[in-house]
Design a protein that fits this description.
The structure is a homodimer.
Chain A lengths: L10 H8 L14 H12 L6 E3 L6 E4 L4 E11 L11 H17 L4 E11 L5 H18 L2 E9 L5 E11 L14 E5 L4 H10 L7 H11 L5 H10 L2 E6 L4 H12 L2 E5 L10 H7 L3 H7 L6 E5 L4 H10 L4 E8 L3 E7 L5 E5 L4 H8 L3
Helix pairs in contact in A: 3-4, 3-7, 5-6, 10-12
């Protein structure tokens, strides 16, 4: 994703738990990350004619030739913010660093080609740890069909961090932007929501029950897979009006899509896929599984909109890619994102969840 | 520069002085950064046919169309390693972040087009500081004729860091690699050597005399300029066999060029440009100005080789770009880099300085 805050899925609790020695006062009262991005975007000014899309989508899009475009994305992972080496095996971290970037390429309907890597590490680093990280990274590149072609290596006295740039390609006419959603579109997500957030919480609390579902939640945090085949199929189908990947949580990401498209969205809580499967983990963690699904982040599933006429076609495309696709709501006129959910008394309510969805929920539940 | 250690110009003293609270034990005994790069390059394996040059030059080179290529480079700056906010104005830091990347594009004979930026910062960051950084960065982009098109924003609990990817373009036939140096070639550098290292030392020691030379040395560290016009002219001239930018110091960078070209180099100390001008600063800092010129790093001048027949042509090209060019040595058969210098008794000696040049000097001088 382009110039977003890569850590908003983690938030204050995560930082406070993992960085007890750092001053987090004023952390969330600082300038909102979206304002940072808007500030930078305004400074960047008008660009070269070959730039088709700059700041504000999953990737920047550059004209390559008459028919094809390059897609460019960049994501950073920082020790203590995005991962904890106490439970993140280096090989999976290397894989994840590739996947979170490739996910942005997939979200535009493209395929990844080339990777640049900048690593910062203690000079007195653990050589075997780094080698496992590098193996995971290059193995993931091979799996996705892309290649490491360069980068930088620097000392980082306070821990490991890595930034990747991934360059992908797509047919110019098949690129799917965030800005194309239309009133009346069905909102879709691939796979399940909230499992990465559940996995992170289980790992953080050291809960290991050998439960297969729990293992898969943890794996979703440690080693997510980018939906390249699905993104490419959806782009090629020409059926999809808007698309992005889910990295900051459905409530925040859908709000970005709505803002870019100039419309609003209404989600239906009972249609959110995967919530039921989160129940036991949520009970153990003392949280609400719906919170994970709406605001958890790091799903790396695809979020897209299409005319309701194409429901069966889309379900079949998903099936061919081995992924369940779920219609979770509708694009509406206006702005913002709301969620329709049942109250315990059986009546329903519609609550605003755009951007702040996760916090709204916390407030509403009195937590 | 592609997958190099961006901090080797600074070394243990720099880290120890700036990071008194961090454990630097074993810092320089850890695996050599070049070994890291070679390890990663071996894992990366064979690549796509569109990749013309991967790890090991200033930029990766990708085929764009029959006539043109894209050049890609990535460099990271980390607080406390590459810069000190106590004396580095944010606007100049933003400019420098662009310049050190654009310098890699210039070193292949290309022109910069697009920039991706990933910034990591304290959430409780100083908003006006960041805005000045962003202004400097976007102003520098404008000066170099390139545009910020995307990136990432993350929390970095231990301080500010930024990684840039710059995409440039060049005529495929005019790209100059590190690997083309030939025995008998004259070795050239643009501008002066060692002034950035002198400036850093003056800043670090808080020496501010209002001396115009000292101010220019400090400016060279705080706000270096990439030699885009010169690099582009040299590439277009077809006269240059090998080229790279000087970021890690002449002794180290020339050793990289020699290794890539499969030859050796012999430098002549009295021909190194700018050493005399460093004398007063060196006296105040208790160091040898030649050490700064050979091993200081961050010059961001161009280092290149060409047939000795083209001396006047090259001097004229430099003049047109407003830069003095100096022949500093000769490419020889064999391997390694040596420096011919006069002893105090008037006799001359030839010492090996490849990679470890700076340390060799320190040892020889008994420091």
């Amino acid at each position: 994703m382009t110039l977003r805050c890569g850590d908003s899925e983690l938030g204050r609790d995560f930082l406070a738990a993992r960085l007890p020695n750092y001053d987090l006062e004023g952390v969330l009262s600082a300038v909102n990350e979206r304002q940072i991005i808007e500030y930078i975007a305004a400074l960047a000014g008008p660009a070269d004619a070959r730039l088709i899309k700059g700041i504000g989508d999953d990737c920047a899009v550059i004209q390559k030739d008459g028919r094809q475009v390059w897609l460019l994305t960049m994501d950073t992972l920082i020790e203590g913010v995005h991962f904890n080496t106490a439970y993140h095996p280096p090989e999976k971290l290397g894989r994840k660093a590739v996947s979170v970037n490739v996910s942005d390429i997939a979200a535009m309907g493209g395929r990844p080609l080339f990777v640049l890597l900048s690593v910062g590490m203690l000079k007195a680093f653990d050589e075997s740890w780094f080698q496992a990280f590098a193996r995971g990274l290059t193995d993931a590149c091979r799996d996705y069909g892309c290649f490491l072609i360069g980068g930088d290596t620097v000392a980082s006295p306070q821990g490991f961090n890595c930034t990747l740039t991934v360059i992908g390609e797509a047919e110019a006419e098949r690129v799917v932007y965030r800005s194309g959603a239309r009133v009346g579109d069905t909102i879709w997500v691939s796979g399940s929501l909230g499992s990465a957030a559940a996995g992170l919480e289980l790992l953080h609390r050291g809960i290991e029950l050998g439960n297969a579902a729990f293992v898969s939640f943890q794996e979703q945090h440690l080693n997510p897979r980018a939906r390249v085949e699905l993104g490419s199929s959806l782009g090629a189908s020409g059926l999809v009006h808007a698309m992005m990947d889910l990295s900051d949580g459905l409530a925040t990401d859908l709000a970005h899509l709505c803002k870019q498209s100039g419309i609003g969205a209404r989600l239906v809580a009972r249609n959110l896929p995967g919530v039921a499967a989160l129940a036991e983990a949520a009970r153990l963690c003392g949280t609400d599984p719906e919170q994970w699904a709406i605001g958890g982040g790091e799903d790396y599933e695809l979020l897209f909109t299409a005319s309701p006429d194409h429901q069966f076609c889309l379900l079949e495309l998903g099936r061919q890619c081995g992924l369940a696709l779920s219609p979770v709501g509708t694009i509406v006129a206006g702005e913002g994102v709301t969620l329709i959910r049942q109250r315990p008394d059986g009546t329903s309510e519609e609550v605003a969840i755009a951007y702040q969805g996760f916090d709204h929920f916390r407030n509403r539940e009195g937590r």
